[in-house]
Amino acid sequence: MEIIQVVGYKDSGKTTLVRELVNAFTQAGYNIGTLKNSPHDHDPEPEGTDTRLHREAGAAITAFVTPNRAAWVEERKVTTEEIVETMARRGVDILIVEGFKNAPYPKIALIRSETDTALIDLPNTITVATRTPISSIDAAAESRGIARFHVPDTASFGPITAFWLDRVRSNRKAK
User: Domain Molybdopterin-guanine dinucleotide biosynthesis protein B (MobB): where (predicted)?
Assistant: First the structure.
């Protein structure tokens, strides 16, 4: 299973890029999974739903099934590695991870300004995208052999999506 990680600070375009990657890889015939890091401890189920009531009564795990989908909610901490292993067992070809800056996976770093420079030094950064050319970021990326893109409109990350689609195809051919 290939893993692509998208990192950046708030409003850098992470979710937009993840959606574009999911769409491109799905259209190319890959089975895609996503994993999102949330710093908030919010409940994924609305108040009053039956499965939330089950958990509030003490159930450690609940699931619901519809004719077209299923969802699980567990009342425990899980590691990123557990989720990655589960996705692999479930037949995911490519897992796209949003967040988890310090995870070891190949990264796309979305940098808004020079104040986000630390993102380029995260482990396994393969690609850097800025909205405008930033000479210090460009120089740092070039010196590290990191692909860089200038994406003025974060409503579309087409060149980055094409880069990663080619990268995944090349990796799969090499295996």
Answer: 3-130
The C-alpha torsion from 74 through 76 and 77 to 80, rounded to 10°, is: -30
Question: Domains of the chain by range and CATH?
Answer: 2-40+78-174 (3.40.50.300)
DSSP secondary structure string for all residues of 13-69: SHHHHHHHHHHHHHHTT--EEEEE--SS---SS-TT-HHHHHHHTT-SEEEEE-SS-
The answer to whether the beta carbons of residues 101 and 121 sit under 8 Å apart is: no
Dump pLDDT digits (tens) for 4-47.
999 999 989 999 999 999 999 999 999 999 999 988 888 888 89
83-87 long-range contacts, CB within 8 A, separation 24+: 83/35, 84/1, 84/3, 84/35, 87/1, 87/33, 87/35
Angle at 80 between CA 172 and CA 14, to 5 degrees: 70
- Picking from 66, 67, 105, the residue whose alpha carbon sits closest to that of residue 84 is 105
